[in-house]
Amino acid sequence: MAALEVRNLSVRFGEFPALEGVSLAVPEGAFVAIVGPNGAGKSTLLKALLGLVPFLGEVRVFGRPLGEADPRWFGYVPQIKTFDRSFPALALELVATGLLGRWPFRLSPGAREEALRALARVGAEGLAHRPLGRLSGGQLQRVYLARALIRRPRLLLLDEPATGVDRVGEVDLYRYLEAYQRESGATVLMITHDWEAAHHATHVLVLNRKVVGFGPPERALSEECLRQAYGHLGHAHGLFVGGERA
Ligand SMILES: Nc1ncnc2c1ncn2[C@@H]1O[C@H](COP(=O)(O)OP(=O)(O)OP(=O)(O)O)[C@@H](O)[C@H]1O
């Protein structure tokens, strides 16, 4: 069974078409890297899959129409640049919102235990009692990952999770994701600007309002697909084509 089937999905913001006729089928257990230029509609796609923006077309998750999917199947790590750091809460409390679906005005001992375990899973137990406003970008990313993993989602959606994370933290992040995927069989969709990371995915989706390429990295990251998506072959992120630096 496909974890995700998207048929002819389109999203408009007023007159502006952010996504047009996107179709793809993601097998269960796949690790999909989503790449594409700024404004390509990558975040919009994840939001549509979460039911956060209205769309035309059809989305099925583990065989069910999106409207009938169990919300507990989904884990989401948003872009942290959209987060208000002044919110007066502890890391542990943010993680627990993933469990409870609301802000935990008082944490039960059970929820506290689970939140601590989720933080430990991403090597961040030491951050549990830190105010969110005092976390670095990379630390906050880890806390968000713990929040997404706490309910053990079958489908994990990550929006540029390595932003603000140093190289060591990035390697750790991919290790935690791999470990989680191994033990749970979850399907992962991750937006990234790191094409080197995309080479380690099972599938790459090259998006630029439409699907430019979808398939194994060596095919989707072909020179032709990348030229079509970006209009040129970039160098700023360290471009790899067919495993070789271009
Ligand atoms: N709520 C909104 N209202 C109007 N336009 C929007 C809204 N959200 C996104 N857009 C527009 O839709 C387009 C796609 O945005 P989106 O954030 O999905 O791109 P992206 O590929 O994730 O970009 P980036 O790599 O810069 O994060 C952009 O032109 C953006 O300005």
Written account of the structure:
The protein is an alpha/beta fold and about 250 residues long. It has one domain: Rossmann fold (3-Layer(aba) Sandwich), CATH 3.40.50. Helices cover about 30% and strands about 25% of the residues. The strands form 3 sheets. The chain has a 6-stranded mixed beta sheet, sandwiched between helices. A 4-stranded antiparallel beta sheet has the order 2-1-4-5, with helices on one face. β11 (about 240) and β12 (about 245) form a beta hairpin. The radius of gyration is 18 Å and the shape is globular. The model is unreliable at about 235-245 (pLDDT under 50). The structure holds adenosine-5'-triphosphate. Adenosine-5'-triphosphate binds next to β2 and α1.
Could you say which small molecules are bound to this protein?
adenosine-5'-triphosphate
Number of strands: 12
Strand content: 25-35%
Low-pLDDT residue spans: 235-246
Short description:
Helix content is 32%, strand content 27%. The chain is an alpha/beta fold. The chain has one domain: 3-Layer(aba) Sandwich (Rossmann fold), CATH 3.40.50.300.
Topology, please?
Blueprint: E1 2-13, E2 16-27, E3 31-35, H1 42-49, E4 56-61, E5 64-65, E6 74-77, H2 91-100, H3 109-121, H4 137-149, E7 155-159, H5 167-184, E8 187-191, H6 195-198, E9 203-208, E10 210-215, H7 217-220, H8 223-230, E11 240-241, E12 244-245
Parallel strand pairs: 3-8, 3-9, 6-7, 7-8
Antiparallel strand pairs: 1-2, 1-4, 4-5, 9-10, 11-12
Helix pairs in contact: 2-3, 2-4, 3-4
